[in-house]
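Dear support,

I submitted the protein below through the web form. The confirmation email said the job was done, but the results page showed an empty box. After a refresh the structure appeared. I'm attaching both so you can tell me whether what I see now is the final result or a partial one.
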Amino acid sequence: MPDAVLNGYDPGAFWCEMSQGGAAQTVRDRLAALTLDELKRRAADADAELRDLGITFTVYSERDAADRVLPFDCIPRVLSAEDWATIESGVCQRVSALNHLLHDIYHDQKILADGVIPADLVLGNANYRPVMRGVDLPHRTYVNVCGTDIVRDASGGFMVLEDNARTPSGVGYVVENRHMMLRAFPDMLEGVELRPVADYGSRLLGALREVAPPVADPQVVLLSPGPYNSAYFEHVFLAREMGVPLVEGRDLLVTEDDRVWMRTTGGLARVEAIYRRIDDDYLDPEAFRPDSALGVPGLMRAYRAGKVALANAVGTGVADDKAVYAYMPRAIRYYLDQDPILANVDTHICREPDALKYTLDHLEELVVKPVGEAGGYGITIGPRASRRELEECRARLLAEPANYISQPCLALSVAPTLVEGRVEPRHVDLRPFAVTGAKTWVLPGGLTRVALRRGSLVVNSSQGGGSKDTWVLG
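What the results page shows now:
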């Protein structure tokens, strides 16, 4: 008898929604009706289609850059309505606290004066932008798009691993993964009530218009560094989904009256809101790096004058810092007078002597991360590291303790994943995307990233990870 897809699948001691969540029963039954050979055939067809559609990301090395298809695993991740209610409310709470925090540190700085967060941790942060002091933003919204990385531990509890409040990427894969499942596995979705993901573009456009200067029909554009950026596929995708122009810095100009214009074949056209996918440093050569050829001279003048909206706001990188992350539960209580719905992972801030000593004494047990890096770079996973890697990590900690935090090595949840012709458990995380204008909306599901290497805990695409379609049941 041909092998069924989940025959022999065993998540071991790890949490797995497919095995332990009753909500996934319908999906389990439909997978049981598929042979492994049929799953592999359809998965190969899906991979070929992703390549044909140009749904890629760019991996940079020291010598070259290569476009790759983000590996797509065709076995969906299934979240119950109850699980999603917890995630959604927790993400909304966290985004609210992030926006309160950012408004405060660029205005009255009460949280610093009250000693809830160390002032030097914020004011000395490389991503703190003094040019934003006193700038008032519509609805006090700094983080218009937030990607909150969430994991499940061995008990099934949800925890926030980090906040991505600058230019979080990956939402294009969320929508395209659903499109791919609809094309390749229509029988698996038939009759299953799923929360939709197709309206992300209209939701984002609406939020950007809510923070734009008050004009009748604000013009929104998406500002990209260009086709060599690793997330360029997503820039094209989102511009199309919103129905707005995709521009580069050379397409925009700022006039003496601090207004932003777009060059078009019909002449200049006013721009009121910019969804920018360019980091602060490269955004305006007048205000930041003078050698930047990606940005728009004078853009900060227009922004400070309230003539244009930028999403996300300049200076949100402070909230991305992994040391500031450790204080977010306190910030939630300080600003919202609420207990956090989603817990933080226990975090040791190595700039503090006691935390540094603990980290050095337990290096083999901990995950050590640089505070300002993203994409899984610079991480040392103690239980998986060689003696040489541990000693190199120790040297870095002693040389620059303020640049690192450490956390326990979690037993991340797993999901059944097709790898090299077999279905095996692989570790996953979840990045829900929250869109905020006057209020916050969370895209149902988000990006499930999966570590394709056996035993690996690093899910980032730049480190060999893939993605799954995330199903939130209605």
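Response: this is the final, complete result; the empty box was a page-load delay. The two ends are 35 Å apart (CA to CA).
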